[in-house]
Predict the 3D structure of the following.
Amino acid sequence: MEAYLDNAATTRPFKEVWDIMKKTMEEDYGNPSSLHKKGMEAENYLRNTRTVIAESLKVKEKEIVITSGGTESNNMALIGGAFANQRSGKHIITTRIEHASVYNPLLFLEKQGFRITFLPVDNNGHVDLEELKNALCEETILVSIMHVNNEMGAVEDLQTIGEIIRAYNPEILFHVDAIQSFGKFKIYPKQLGVHMLSVSGHKIHGPKGVGFLYIQDKTKVLPLIHGGGQQKGMRSGTENVPGIAGLGKAVELIYENHADKIANMYCLKEYFVEEISRIEGVKVNGLAGIDVRDTAPHVVSVSFKGIRSEVLLHALEEKGVYVSSGSACSSNHPSISGTLRAIGVDNDLLDSTLRFSFSVNTTKEELAYAMEQVKELLPMLRRFTRR
Amino acid sequence: MYKAFLIKYAEIGVKGKNRHIFEEALRRQVEKALKETEGEFNVTREQGRIYAEATKDYNYEDALEALSRVFGVVGICPVVIYDDIEWESVQKNVCDFVGNVYKDKNFTFKVKAKRGNKNYPVTSPEICAKIGEKLLEAYPEMKVDVKNPDVFITVEVRNRLYVYSETIEGPGGMPTGTAGKAMLLLSGGIDSPVAGYMVAKRGVTLEATYFHAPPYTSDRAKQKVIDLAKQVAKYAGPIKLNIVNFTDIQLYIYEQCPEDELTIIMRRYMMMIAQKLAEESGCLGLITGESIGQVASQTMQSLLTTNEVCTLPVYRPLIALDKQEIVAIAEKIDTYETSILPYEDCCTIFVAKHPVTKPNLKAIKRSEEKLSEKIEEMLQKAVETMEVITVGE
């Protein structure tokens, strides 16, 4: 049996996604900028994807810029947003648990003379709202906060955060990294007061190498990639038609019967959390005093006392169970997860944490199988650990 | 512009009666190296030298890079060849050569002449004198210095005219395949690929053994070792890589033996396996990347203890090098970047906080007695189940 439980890393594309991608390569291979019929056919895929995305967010089609994925979307929002608005100030606020594709562009901006505030989070990964209020100042031009944390599935309260920002100064841009949350939640940027929102295709059973950035109509953002002026000059380069077609299909499908799918995922998560917590020396992170349903439906962070995560990961892999280590760990390279540290995971568990992440297609049988393997492996692995 | 390379070699020139064997080996290695580049070359031995002459267009940088990886090559001189050997043309062509190669003419020089064609009407000393004169005329900034010139301009008149002045350093050493075969214990670290490179440089053919320990070490760690072997093979020629699953043995040692002796005992068994494989495939020695005192298992006492299981000689070319010196070689041969990729290797997973640094052989042997029940069978199984791949073919 195989249990792919690394869906926060990437998901298996839906069959309809590769079908449509195949068609764009076999038949409708034109360049959307070409004036002839072939170009027109290709352009239709772009239009369609844009429409599907815009409908899913309840925004306008022209507010969507298609990118090469989550990293580019985040870079464009942060770097493009910061440079376009630097006359109003050079202060940016974010959190200590952002993904590297937010964190590193901000470090880049710091070197360019911007000042960055990193907000602390509590042990469930929720950003400290009082600290946010304190951090806002006249110089602040941008606040970037992720919707769902990729390592433990914490869900940030975007509604309240948006209100706090607007109450202080409605001119401040609010960017949300929704890469882990799009497809899991219905997100309406206009209701939330979000100006920019990043999404990646391959986290929602779409293809890799494609994603989008929602940019609210009046928001000023400088393009990062210059060239032939495609996408109204916001993102030059011949459009990735197969990827974009696949992305549109994935967005369409992920929001079909959405409520049922998500309800099912929560049931699975509840089952998994309950069962795995019964195993001795196992602790689920980010659920201190809160309900599973207050977290994302697809991510569970689990610490295994006395086990090195990489070893357990490879042992599970031999049994056909695929998961992620909560941190890239190795004796030669002790780069421990900033997120786990930020939520206060004990030092001796930092290197002992795995992430199990589900998709809409994950089954109870897969989870049961995975936990069975964990139960069998733990005693063996605990016998052989560094004494 | 350059049509050929003159390959200089030093050491193999003095190998007495075996000389032609070494020269032919080097010629073949040069030929082989150039085959991997674009272009075609005619590689010949003549008058105690090796010439590689391009018979078609080729990429100069690529050819030079390929040649600079051939063990046995001390220097590479790019040569310009002119068909016309009429004396007037010779003088003009040498002046053109200097004009093209040296934009800044502010240097001292000496002309060396060789007259392969003894019927040529002008003698070697006359060639030197006349061409020197012509050069001074053409480029007044140049100065003659016969004792210690900046540049030697060599003019060889044979059935054609060969002119060269620049020598690019080669790796030195002996042609691959002229010294027998040895078994390299290859880990994913910085040292062992360098050790393999250094011994291979003396003409030794390499075979390698890697110990992996799934699930404690990952497939990426294994891939890293394969990549390292490939990189070493660029210099050393094809390498047969034995990948031995060491998990069971390692866990058995872990269960039966004292913690602080784990590493040393593990290394003794690795040496035993490597030696067994070495003997089976006709290797004349083992190679390790050990360096005195670098880690607990490389103190002189530890080396004595691991060496004790070996009957084949163990070659340790890095034994007296410092880490920085080893890193410098690793960077030169381009294994460093791969070596520092952060994957766990099997030596580090169970390493004790305070491993024994001065192991006592008797004590170690006593500990090993606790393994007597199953170890033979396990060693046998490890060898039987090993995976063998050849890289660099």
Notes: Chain A has 13 helices and 13 strands.
